[in-house]
Write a structure and sequence with these properties.
The structure holds 2 protein chains of 2 kinds. By secondary structure, chain A is mainly α. Chain A has one domain (1-217): Phosphate transport system protein phou homolog 2, domain 2 (Methane Monooxygenase Hydroxylase, Chain G, domain 1). Chain A has helices at residues 7-40, 43-74, 78-111, 121-147, 150-158, 163-180, 185-217. Chain A is elongated and about 70 Å long. Chain B is of the alpha/beta class. In chain B, strand 7, helix 8 and strand 8 form a beta-alpha-beta unit. The longest helix of chain B has 14 residues, at 161-174. Classes of the chains: A mainly alpha, B alpha/beta. Chain A: This is Phosphate-specific transport system accessory protein PhoU.
């Protein structure tokens, strides 16, 4: 793409771009870390995720401030305007994914409380499956943002990864466990909450893909697929 | 002309979508030459229709094959880099270019279905019907009252002093200036502030009952407050008049107009709804210009 006559504007836009990438990288790491804590049953790792959420929130504030500054100083239009507006929306989704990882981390801290017995690994399989999916979706969304390659965005929009369906299947399986052994109901509810959080992460990734398509092509496809 | 190249693939796909929806868009010539205008040249309820308008200054082909409708009660912004022909085009609409000896205009410009360049056209009433406001406020060296009264007098629009008073008051009211000058109507117009002088010039234009108002960078010499007043006025005047405005301020074009036309090297590159042009322009040249990636 051609440079702006005012090179400072290019610098500001690319600074904004890299801030979003840094934030996305942090959120990816949060999601990876929380899944590791589940895999290893390690509460201390989950606690780190909770503590690091402040950094995610700080990125949101920093990026919002940059967006405001660019809007005020540069009055962007056309593709520049779409980029700035899309980023301001994408950041909200990234922050929400961060919140979901914290929700998951707190549930993991409860589940692996040393005072209680660890959950049956069979019960956790659905979480692992959905976690892998959500992580893949977040990486795709971040790649799409970084490269502007809409193929990745359309993969998410098409629903090749269907977190919603996976969640429904997971509910059925958890119910089966509960029907077999009613004492598992407490654990199953925790697991369902984690699955719901992962499903929401997937939905936020789809939102990011939608904003990518708006940013690059100028098409607003929200609520249309 | 080799800088005017082709659409990006994404723009081509958008064009195809528009064409499939039967929206009037002429495809660009993708061979490297600039093709037809992108976007719909048509307006709802057109007051001005321009077809194949070409203007020459001697050997210089200043504007080339412009086709554009301007709708009744519409504000259209003409934007583009310096020397792109937007002011030249504007001045064709009331034959102001006639005053330039080397200027030659061909093609067809009709206002309310009357050919502006007909041999029988009298340019004096034409310029009353199609008023013009210039970049620099240019009040006559007369009183505020006489600045407004001059036009109606020479066009015979008032037969009594009372009628003239009425025209002066209503013109100043329409231009949003009455409350500021009603107590000093007989003081020189040149004593007003720049913004007031520009509104005085607009009032002077309105006094001869125009149908179309042409504005050539009307705010470029004004401060932000005076600019805001003129922009508010443009929005109010739109209810009664058709307005074409040349501006170098992208934000002003986005604020005041319903449609925007982008000119480049004498050609009309793109025309469309202002909201579309400033959020999702179809032509790469338009995008480069409005986002400041030009030159």
């Amino acid at each position: 793409m051609k440079e702006h006559t005012v090179h400072l504007f290019d610098g500001e836009l690319s600074h904004l771009h890299y801030l979003v990438l840094e934030m996305a990288g942090l959120v990816i790491d949060q999601l990876d870390t929380v899944m590791t804590s589940l895999d290893e049953g390690e509460v201390s790792i989950a606690e780190k995720v909770v503590a690091r959420d402040r950094e995610v929130n700080e990125y949101e504030l920093k990026i919002d401030a940059e967006v405001l500054s660019i809007l005020a100083k540069r009055s962007p239009v056309a593709n520049d305007l779409r980029k700035v507006i899309s980023i301001s929306k994408i950041v909200v989704d990234l922050e929400r994914i961060g919140d979901e990882t914290v929700r998951i981390a707190k549930l993991i801290i409860d589940m692996f409380d040393p005072q209680t017995s660890d959950p049956n690994p069979q019960l956790l399989r659905d979480i692992v499956r959905m976690g892998t999916m959500a992580r893949g979706m977040l990486r795709k969304a971040t790649d799409a943002f970084d490269t502007g390659n809409l193929d990745d965005a359309y993969v998410l929009i098409r629903g090749d990864w269907d977190c919603g369906q996976e969640f429904q299947d997971g509910i059925r399986r958890q119910l089966t466990f509960v029907l077999q052994d009613a004492r598992l109901i407490g654990r199953a509810l925790d697991i369902l909450q984690i699955m719901k959080a992962l499903e929401r992460c997937g939905n936020h990734c789809i939102n990011i893909a939608e904003f990518m398509i708006f940013m690059v092509e100028g098409k607003d496809i929200r609520h249309r697929h | 002309m080799n800088t005017v190249t082709q659409l990006k693939p994404k723009s081509v796909s958008r064009m195809k979508t528009l064409i499939s929806k039967n929206i009037s868009v002429k495809p660009l010539n993708l061979q490297g030459e600039m093709g037809a205008t992108v976007g719909s040249i048509h307006a709802d309820n057109p007051r001005i229709t321009c077809r194949n308008v070409n203007v020459f200054y001697g050997e210089n082909h200043a504007i080339q094959d412009i086709n554009l409708d301007i709708g009744t009660n519409e504000v259209i912004s003409l934007i583009g880099p310096s020397g792109c022909g937007k002011s030249t085009f504007l001045r064709c609409l009331n034959r102001m270019n006639d005053t330039v000896e080397s200027c030659r205009v061909n093609g067809e410009i009709k206002i309310d279905n009357v050919d502006v360049y007909s041999k029988h056209m009298d340019v004096v009433p034409l310029r009353a019907q199609v008023g013009m406001v210039f970049q620099k406020p240019n009040p006559f060296p007369k009183s505020i009252y006489d600045n407004i009264a001059y036009g109606p007098k020479i066009h015979g629009l008032a037969s009594t002093k009372a009628e003239l008073d009425q025209i002066v008051e209503s013109s100043l009211r329409k231009a949003g200036l009455w409350d500021e000058v009603k107590d000093r109507l007989h003081q020189p117009g040149t004593g007003l502030s720049g913004g007031q002088q520009q509104r005085l010039c607009i009032a002077r234009t309105l006094s001869v009952e125009p149908e179309v108002i042409l504005m050539d960078e009307p705010c470029s010499a004004l401060d932000p407050i005076a600019t805001a007043k003129i922009e508010q006025l443009i929005d109010e005047l739109r209810q009664r008049y058709t307005i074409a405005i040349v501006t170098h301020s992208m934000q002003q074009a986005a604020r005041v107009s319903q449609r925007t036309a982008y000119f480049h090297l004498g050609k009309l590159i793109e025309v469309g709804k202002t909201s579309d042009v400033f959020t999702n322009p179809l032509h790469e040249l338009t995008q480069d210009y409005i986002t400041g990636r030009f030159g």
